[in-house]
């Protein structure tokens, strides 16, 4: 049975979904927080754009464009002084807002600035917002939105397919039975959390085939929980388990050159107090890692060879169609430049973003 309830026109190529030159404006992971010490500066390339990240004495992570606006030296060659960053080449110094605050050969600094990007930390990661002002909070697991959490890192990986295609895997109802022998009946209900986040939920009474859940099923008659929350089509939060035991796994992905994926797996648990709470969480995080490895082991070879093309969607593919439609309504940026892209009548137009605070540059040029 074919499904066209969402009226997706597969004859026209999607402008965002599975496109190697485009991504959605949003929060994206940069590096684990523990890999950036106070006083340390590092080069990073995120979604094709060269950046520099450092941590000042106030312990806040700061992200700049990589190159000094004076002569183009890479700022990762510089050094952190207090909460500011000094370029190695001519020793120009920039504050956390990117404004030049010192030029050694001048009595006063000139009115110049390096581009800065909104930065935050959560779940043990540093995140960057790829636009001017964050429009959404950092990605979160809905049931843990207001809770303090423990986290642990799994493997970092690269796949040959787009992050959107990797995300589709978790809502591909057919593969849960054919690949994982888990459940033959999956009924995923969609809900849009906001413009950039969509959830899918499946609470089934069917007897599961997966051995880990089989162990507790004789003592547990309520639905098995399987909830997902997708942010920007590239960060997926998975919650699986029972009413009394939840496993939370985050797949943080980003688009790299050639339409491939660089990803990191994070295991999350609500923080519990005391030594026994700490030990319990270590066990839950370990079990979450074991659960994730079970699924990834069978899926990884698909990600290395798939050439995604949903030519003949059937009823079970409806969540995938809904996911694609959700992405197509969001704000697309150009990979590499991070400029806004607009599609009209099938033509793509790139719009360069400029900060209001940089209007002085026009005035300087015209003087």
Describe this protein's structure.
Pfam families: Rieske (PF00355). This is Rieske (2Fe-2S) iron-sulfur domain protein. The protein has two domains: 27-129, Rieske [2Fe-2S] iron-sulphur domain (Rieske Iron-sulfur Protein, 3-layer Sandwich); 142-328, Alpha-Beta Complex (Naphthalene 1,2-dioxygenase Alpha Subunit, Chain A, domain 1). 19% of the residues lie in helices and 34% in strands. It has six helices and 22 strands. It has helices spanning 163-168, 173-178, 211-216, 274-305, 318-328, 360-366; strands at 22-24, 27-32, 41-46, 49-55, 61-65, 79-81, 84-86, 93-94, 100-102, 116-117, 119-122, 125-129, 149-159, 189-194, 197-204, 224-231, 235-241, 246-256, 260-270, 332-334, 340-344, 347-351. Strand 18 and strand 19 form a beta hairpin. The N and C termini lie far apart (68 Å). 33% of the residues are buried.
């Amino acid at each position: 049975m074919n499904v066209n309830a969402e009226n997706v026109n597969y004859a026209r190529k999607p402008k965002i979904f599975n496109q190697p030159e485009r991504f959605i404006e949003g929060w994206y992971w940069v590096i684990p927080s523990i890999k950036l010490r106070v006083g340390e500066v590092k080069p990073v390339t995120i979604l094709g754009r060269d950046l520099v990240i450092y941590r000042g004495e106030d312990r806040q992570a700061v992200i700049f464009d990589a190159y000094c606006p004076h002569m183009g030296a890479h700022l990762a060659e510089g050094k952190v002084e207090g909460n500011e960053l000094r370029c190695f080449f001519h020793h120009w110094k920039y504050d956390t807002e990117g404004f030049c605050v010192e030029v050694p050969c001048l009595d006063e600094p000139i009115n110049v600035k390096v581009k800065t990007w909104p930065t935050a930390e959560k779940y043990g990661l540093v995140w960057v917002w790829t636009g001017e002002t964050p429009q959404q909070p950092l990605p979160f697991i809905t049931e843990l939105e207001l809770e303090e959490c423990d986290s642990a890192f799994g493997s970092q990986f690269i796949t040959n397919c787009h992050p959107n295609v990797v995300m589709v895997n978790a809502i591909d109802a057919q593969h849960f039975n054919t690949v994982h022998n888990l459940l033959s009946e999956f009924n995923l209900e969609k809900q849009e959390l906001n413009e950039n986040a969509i959830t899918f939920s499946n609470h089934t009474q069917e007897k599961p085939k997966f051995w880990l859940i089989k162990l507790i099923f004789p003592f547990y008659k309520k639905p098995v929980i399987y909830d997902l929350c997708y942010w920007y089509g590239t960060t997926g939060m998975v919650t699986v388990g029972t009413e009394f035991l939840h496993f939370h796994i985050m797949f943080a992905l980003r688009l790299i050159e050639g339409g491939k994926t660089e990803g990191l797996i994070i295991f999350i648990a609500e923080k519990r107090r005391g030594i026994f709470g700490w030990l319990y969480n270590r066990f839950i995080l370990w079990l979450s890692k074991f659960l994730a490895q079970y699924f990834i082991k069978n899926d990884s070879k698909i990600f290395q060879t798939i050439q995604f093309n949903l030519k003949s969607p059937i009823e079970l593919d409806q969540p995938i169609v809904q996911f694609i439609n959700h992405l197509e309504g969001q704000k697309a940026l150009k990979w590499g430049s991070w400029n806004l892209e607009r599609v009209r009548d099938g033509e793509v137009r790139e719009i360069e973003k400029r900060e209001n605070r940089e209007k002085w540059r026009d005035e300087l040029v015209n003087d």
